[in-house]
Records
---
Amino acid sequence: MKALILPFKGKHPQIHPSAFIAPGAVLIGDVEIGENASVWYGCVLRADMNKIVVGDGSNVQDGTIIHVDAPEIGGLPTIIGRNALVGHKCMLHGATVQDGGFVGMCATMLDGSVVESGGFLAAGGFLGPKKIVPTGQMWGGLPARKMRDLREGEDKMALMGAAHYVQEARDHQQALDFTDLSPGPGDMRSKPCD
């Protein structure tokens, strides 16, 4: 199994050579993946109507879905800045995660919503259209609202997580380099290590 990288209406995903795109991920259309960024197993980034950007060093973790609407109907691109963290099974639609922003597992961000640099959207949080998680704050709940100010160092969690995922991506790529993913009996078979 490989990642599905699909051009759409003349727009081709642009992936930096150092980026990690896990098997089973789907990237469609006007997608841009930056240096040392990672898109993990089971993610779907469908940029068929607008742009999706994953900035340098950022990660989009397993099972996340990112989509956009067309500008003609007011749709916005989804922009993930540098060294940002988007947790497992999130949903982002026309949203922005600024440099060093943190989006916890199973969180949702709708059109025009923003997690600012050093902002933190807690796991399961539902950030409605045009809502903003300011720098230094943790928001969560349904709908998301301010829970508290971040404690010293918590605003750096995305940066630490991003650095961890850069190395994790390298480790996964190395493991995949030694695995035969071609179909056959048992499907995946490890190659002998030299």
Note: Helices lie at 157-177.
---
Amino acid sequence: MEKLTSTTLSRSAVAVALTGSFLLTACSTEETPESKAPASSSPASSPTTAAPSTPAPDPTEQTKTELTGLYRSYWAEMEKAYQLGSTKETRLSDYAAAVALAEAEKNVTTHSTAGRTTSGSVGVNDTTVTKLDLNQKMASATLSTCLDISRWNLINKATKKKIDLPSERLTRYVIVTTLEKWPQGWRIVLDEPQEQTC
């Protein structure tokens, strides 16, 4: 039996109806000052309905949504990389850089060289932006996520059989992620599993 202990693995416009009615009086061809009927003109119009205003999007909330979505995409590419045994046919570099990308590439290579592949999926749960600094020269953020690897299985490539893992290992744990906004966009630069269940 092969044992592993590593835990790394989101107006319509409202029409304004203006209606008017004009009452016109016909004049007699034999009008006298006394017989002139007073002209009556009473335009009636419906009240103007103001279009409801839509609040401007909050840039901070937009960024938070972008970051949590990016992290889910990152793990979708990580799943693919481990299954393929390589990061070359993935979009991992669209989401990760620096230490995070280097470690992912190293771990995937080690995993493949050892004759392993994967099946199943990783649960990326409760991702929260715990820190966000958009005002510094290089914007940065920190995420906290509950990663669930209980349905992510290691498979022996030769035998096609599931590899038994230590029963005491954490299968749901907190992982802390650091991101920076590079010229190409947001990138994960650190992805650090914590020895903390969730």
Note: The beta strands are 116-120, 123-133, 140-148, 152-156, 172-182, 185-197.
---
Amino acid sequence: MNQHKYKNRILCLTAMTGFLLTGCASGQQPAPPTEPAPTPTQSEASESTEAQTPPTVSSTENDTANSTVPQTTPDLEQAQTTALNHAGLSAADVTITKAQQEIDDGQSVYEIEFVTADTKYEYEIDAKLGTVFKYSQEAISQTSGQAFPQSQISEEEAKTAALNYANLSPDQATCTKLELDYDDGVAEYEIEYIADGIEYDFKVNASNGEILEMEMDRR
């Protein structure tokens, strides 16, 4: 009797163990096969690289952005134009009697003087900024100056005559002085040029453009 009970227990345990093993096996799902990641195309890889790479600025662009554009200083002719515009006159309305660069109270200026039929104008133009520094005007009747001949050559003609005499071109030389004055009763232009480190001083007859005198001095 005891053997029979023992066998029954063995059979029951065997059955239960088989049932449990079968249930566990049926409850587990096999893992799906792992699919390989898609290989990006060449265009996609290029776009990804561009998105990750920050834009670069060339050294030339940096230099251009950081550099300061140099400002050009006015020359003698521009100073004359500034003075004439301030006076409300044109070059055809006046006779330039003086145009040269000087130092006034430690400041570099262009001294410009010109006359009309009844008025004398004197200007100082800032040589760095090109602005009017000082100016004055007075009636010709109040001055002791002499009348200039009506048939005189223009300042541009006098400058050209001086350059031609020295075999220089306008691109080679810088005019630093132009003044119309009288010397022994003769109206003449006093003109100075700088070219290749040499200072040229001219005296040009204001009536016919003849070169009365020329001096050269290496600076």
Note: Residues 9 and 15 are 10 Å apart (CA to CA).
---
Amino acid sequence: MTASSFLVLADQLSHLHTQAQHAALQQVNYWLTARNWLVGCYLAEYEQYGQDRATYGERLLAELAKTLRTRGVAGLSLTNLKLCRQFYQTYPALLVTHAATLQAAGLTLPAIGQTVSDQLPATVGGPGIALPALLTRLSFSHFIELLALSTPLQRTFYEVQAVKNNWSVRELKRAIHSALYERTGLSTDKAAVLAAHAGIQAKDGQALSSLLGQFKAPQTPWDDWF
């Protein structure tokens, strides 16, 4: 084997490793997001139709978190249950077209989730953004940041920018904290504002990539959820 062919092989295996790692990460992101959306969906169904829901009232989530903890279920604390419910309420149609995928994994939509599919558009989360793109391109950590936004229009702006620019959670936080939505809306040259922000993100991203390259395993944000 020549030196050049050896280097080509090394490049191929390096690329293979990176792509496989990325695919595995996407799968974890997908199923974490799916689980949390389904949790919110089941909570919404119970709060509307549960036979003994009046017994728990406002204590429902606290009692449920306590019961799940005693059963060894991780990642569904009171705070996280509230987030799951808010997630479903904000994106009620997110997984209604994925029933077959969920069923193949042994998961099912409750009746309320099936009803939602008849009431809401199943492919659009906001102007110009497709729900499948949100589901496959954003992690649940992205959604947590989006849930904190105050208006649907503001949320849609950051959804579009995050998908279009392949933002990490850190980059999404930076954009929100720098009031990119407000600055873009007030500017007469919106493209220039977005381009300037993208330049800053790219410079910071290079420095971050160099730092993360020192670690052998990626840092995962799911410790509080699994």
Note: The first strand starts at residue 124 and ends at 126.
